[in-house]
Amino acid sequence: MRVEIWSDIACPWCYVGKARFDKALAAFPHRDRVEVVHRSFELDPDRPKGEVEPVLTMLTRKYGMSEEQARAGEDGLGAQAAAEGLAYRTRGRDHGNTFDLHRLLHLAKEHGRQDELLALLYRANFAEERSLFTGGDERLVALAVEAGLDAGAARAVLADPDAYADAVRADEREAARLGANGVPFFVLDRTYGVSGTQPVGVFAQALARAWEERPSPEPVGRAGAEACGPDGCAVPRH
Amino acid sequence: MRVEIWSDIACPWCYVGKARFDKALAAFPHRDRVEVVHRSFELDPDRPKGEVEPVLTMLTRKYGMSEEQARAGEDGLGAQAAAEGLAYRTRGRDHGNTFDLHRLLHLAKEHGRQDELLALLYRANFAEERSLFTGGDERLVALAVEAGLDAGAARAVLADPDAYADAVRADEREAARLGANGVPFFVLDRTYGVSGTQPVGVFAQALARAWEERPSPEPVGRAGAEACGPDGCAVPRH
Known about the structure:
By secondary structure, chain A is an alpha+beta fold. The first copy, chain A, has helices at 12-26, 55-63, 67-83, 99-110, 114-127, 136-146, 151-159, 165-177, 200-212; strands at residues 2-7, 35-40, 53-54, 94-95, 185-188, 192-195, 218-219, 228-229, 232-233.
């Protein structure tokens, strides 16, 4: 079974939702047969790469919150994160463009290190004092290396804005096609969709249901085409 | 869209079928959004690892063919392969256990090199004079390196019979669940199944149909759960 999770690194609910999903997955009896794929979704794709802003400033400027509302929102998110055992800095975090982070996550996917890198990017963005957005490429390279990637490969991706750009865009088009206008968005075997940060029990139920109802593909093409099986390979007439 | 292809390296129809599928995929307008995954299927799982036998001998001994029938079968397969532009040695090939090859293909998957390694294993088994089954681990390590894998990682997998063994078994259980008793077996987005080596046109049609009818996941869980979208992140009440 495959679970695709659309998220953005700058999305606090994705950080919390991933932790809840991971708890449900850890308790799922068939967890060894579940493949988890990160899919890209940018909440703020039009923000220029170098434009970094404190989260609280962004919340008041962009969404018209009062400073008090913005702080209360961050406090609430911090409490939700803490309930899942996650560190969350409710003050002093930065907001920035996440396109490069998604491109790196696609590199990590090709090397089987996507989950590791995603966890490190979340931790860096939500829990560490040092901003994820002002450390330049070398900060990201260090995280990529910590996730098990090659420094040279990560540097090459960051230096070439086209690297994995299509993969990020394809994920985003697919989210739009599936009707997702927010994240996190979880899709199980393309059969069930879970929108938003639901309770652990909802993820557990969705896993169980998708597992039980794994689809049976409809046959296409003629029956009895040449194949090899336990009784040997069909010999073509000629 | 994702296409899973169950095959065995020792399966001539898989070799031919993969080439036909690849032709259909190369002409498919959305090919950049198609992910192809190799799935393991062993035709002869009970054969001990070291037990290598000429293909023609295996055909007469195991399937009760006359020598003439066995040779005619290989000639026919050679003609089908040639029609797809594939080299195929109709005489002198060996048959052996393919478990280690599948384990290596799972290593390759984790490094994004599965398609490369599969092509090299097919070529080595069907087109090269040197047997794929009598060169020991170093022969396989050389192919893994040619596919872009690390020699040490390939050696470590071959030295540990448990490495990726569960992944191979899981693929095989999944094939059984989906009703496949022979290979190649192609599954498109878990929606359509193509059994056997069908004509290129059938693969083209299956790709077009699966693309057109990509499934929409059914929502699970409560609506309006906390999420981040273009209008910001929902603020939890507390």
